């Protein structure tokens, strides 16, 4: 994967992931097509490319002094994605088995912890957590897989949103099933859920019984078919035997 490529495109959607002093991960940013804005974006891309090149080829001391949260915010990629890219490159440097292998691994661990902490503010903000899950989760998960971010998937926010989105847990269904008040517009969804659960119980209880009944019916049918075949064979054999008896008797009478 070319990690020097473009970011997740949050700016084009009017939203971006950044670290802020107020603790919010998601913040709205206006989309601007002015020359000044385009110049600013180009500067961010240039800074990001130079930043990653230094991590790929620089010595450890320079890299350690360069990797700061403020440096992530100066890049074109959002802070969350940028921290993933940095930890990925640090792991690659450690895999080279050089004299600074252990220090590169320790620095990569620190950056991964920073990535992990970026999601913590979403734990207490359900609205922004669901916004994160609906709008950004798929792209971020793809990048996390490509950049081998195992620790990222252990975060409660990521785990809960993946479960909510991919397992189809609808909030109104959860409320109605727990006995809370629900609107008439939610009645259809509630009935579908109720019928689905009833069918699961029905299938669990009656499947063994129906299987046994159908098995007995099939065995009786097979026995009946075998008895029919046996009757036809016996009748044919009896006719053949009777013909032989008559033929033998006729020959004996003719000889007399």
UniProtKB/TrEMBL annotation:
* One Gene Ontology term, aspect cellular component: plasma membrane
According to its UniProt entry, the protein's GO biological process terms are: regulation of cytosolic calcium ion concentration
Entry's transmembrane regions: 190-217
- List the Gene Ontology MF annotations in alphabetical order: inositol 1,4,5 trisphosphate binding; store-operated calcium channel activity
Q: Which UniProt keywords apply?
A: Ion channel, Ion transport, Membrane, Transmembrane, Transmembrane helix, Transport
Domain of life of the organism encoding this protein: Eukaryota
* Signal peptide start and end residues: none
Q: Does the keyword Nucleus apply?
A: no
Q: Which InterPro entries does this one have?
A: TRPC_channel (IPR002153)
Q: In its UniProt entry, what is this protein called? A: Uncharacterized protein
């Amino acid at each position: 994967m070319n990690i020097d490529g473009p970011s997740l495109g949050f700016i084009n959607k009017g939203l971006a992931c950044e670290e802020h002093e107020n603790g919010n991960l998601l913040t709205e940013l206006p989309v601007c097509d002015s020359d000044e804005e385009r110049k600013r974006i180009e500067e961010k891309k240039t800074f990001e490319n130079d930043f990653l090149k230094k991590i790929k080829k620089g010595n450890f001391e320079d890299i350690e002094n360069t990797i700061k949260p403020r440096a992530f915010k100066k890049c074109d990629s959002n802070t969350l994605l940028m921290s993933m890219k940095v930890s990925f490159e640090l792991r690659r440097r450690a895999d080279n088995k050089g004299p600074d292998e252990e220090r590169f691994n320790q620095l990569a661990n620190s950056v991964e912890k920073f990535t992990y902490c970026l999601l913590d503010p979403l734990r207490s903000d359900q609205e922004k957590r669901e916004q994160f899950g609906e709008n950004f989760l798929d792209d971020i998960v793809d990048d996390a897989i490509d950049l081998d971010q195992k620790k990222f998937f252990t975060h409660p926010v990521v785990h809960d949103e993946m479960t909510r989105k991919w397992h189809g847990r609808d909030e109104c269904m959860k409320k109605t099933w727990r006995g809370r008040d629900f609107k008439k517009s939610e009645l259809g969804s509630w009935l579908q859920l109720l019928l689905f659960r009833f069918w699961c119980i029905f299938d669990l209880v009656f499947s063994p019984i129906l299987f046994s009944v159908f098995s007995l019916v099939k065995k009786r049918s097979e026995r009946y078919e075998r008895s029919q075949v046996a009757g036809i064979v016996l009748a044919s054999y009896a006719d053949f035997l009777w013909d032989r008896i008559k033929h033998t008797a006729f020959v004996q009478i003719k000889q007399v």
